[in-house]
Amino acid sequence: RRSRMMGIWRFKELLPLKTERPVTMGEGSTPLIRLEKLEKIIGVRRLYVKFEGANPTGSFKDRGMSLAITLAREVGSKAVVAASTGNTAASAAAYAARAGLKTFLLLPRGKVALGKLAQSIMHGAIIVEIEGNFDLALDTAKELAKRDEFYPLNSFNPWRLEGQKTLGFELFEDIGVPDHIFVPVGNAGNISAIWKGFKELKRWGYSDSLPKMNGIQAEGASPIASAFKAGLRAPLFTDSPETVATAIRIGKPVNWLKAWKAVTESGGTFESVTDSEILRAQRLLAREEGIAAEPAGAASVAGLIKLASQGYFNGDETVVAVVTGHGLKDPDSARFHPTMRLRAISMDDAIEKVMEVLEGRS
Ligand code: F0G
Q1: Tryptophan synthase beta chain-like PALP domain: which residues (predicted)?
Q2: Residue 190 shares a structural domain with residue 148
């Protein structure tokens, strides 16, 4: 009996790594969820969320990690290393545990969301806390990766992007080629990977069109979007990125050129959104559509709402927003945010109080 491949390995003919023994947990095959309420408000024909929170560790990182960890094992590495704002860390820790590899994670101290830190600890990774932001952690990871003992898992490793391009293949299976795709941008790997997926589908004769790629950054960490909007040809790197969306709190994106090409070649755009726009989009997804996004994951939706208000769409488009990480990753973003106050009723007169609230009497 021919065994059915799981996860991204369904597309193994379209992946550059041939293996019979992938390290996989069924990553990918995530739901494409139609947002019927929001699409009317925004004014497009169809609006979908590609919910990457449904991956085994709760973010899109699992797609590339499955491939990269498979390779790390095949080349005989003993240990893997990654700098991370949290999701790469959680994914690396889980997949490396499965492959029996030691994991070293370089994390910016105090700036990794609680759920991601808990995952990294749970899977037994060794954590190095860096006094400084992600960009500094990445420099350290690159240094370590020069030694033969360490296999690097950051997205300067092209195998990661090969895994992540399968998001494009799944969209194509589900709805063909959408008109627009919105992607939150941090280190700028994912938007490049999705674009690569669609370009390959066209080159190999599966499709005859391409989507417009739109990259969304947080305003306080928008080296690419701010330069793009100012008509420059290269990003404005910053040493002090700051945003509530800690996953994309990055000042010097390594893959900026690939992302820049994806956006310009496809005819899309870069946009930045404020923290309050991000949190509003997070709340809207949660309360109107039932989708829990971490703040960075909601940035794509915040971006398309902002662009829609500026007349970006003509009303006839099919639009996909990638929600890159699950809301459970960052419980503090809900617990401590003023717009998400706890609505509790005390046990005294509980029945009466519940009825009051239900009937709108209080
Ligand atoms: N959304 C989430 C939830 C992320 O964790 C990241 C990146 C991005 C978007 C941006 O993707 O870097 O490919 O442009 N997180 C990395 C990490 C940096 O370490 O987990 P990108």
Answers
A1: 23-325
A2: no
d(CA 79, CA 150) in angstroms, rounded, equals: 5
- Together in a domain, 244 and 273: yes
What is the tens place of the pLDDT at every residue in 209-245? 999 999 999 999 999 999 999 999 999 999 999 999 9
Q: Ligand 1 centre and the CA of 64: distance in Å? A: 12
- Give pTM, 2 decimals: 0.97
Instruction: Decide: 300 in ligand 1 pocket, CB within 6 A.
Output: no
Ligand 1 mutation target, pool 50, 111, 190, most atoms within 8 A of CB: 190
C-beta 23 within 6 A of ligand 1? no
Please count the structural domains in the chain: 2
> Is the residue at 264 inside a domain?
yes
> Is the minimum distance from the CB of 215 to ligand 1 under 6 angstroms?
no
Q: What is the DSSP string of 261-316?
A: HHHHHHT--EEEE-HHHHHHHHHHHHHHH---B-HHHHHHHHHHHHHHHTT---S-
Q: Which pairing describes strands 46-51 and 79-83: parallel, antiparallel, or unpaired?
A: unpaired
pLDDT score of 2 more than 60: no
Predicted confidence (pLDDT) per residue in 81-128, tens digit: 999 999 999 999 999 999 999 999 999 999 999 999 999 999 999 999
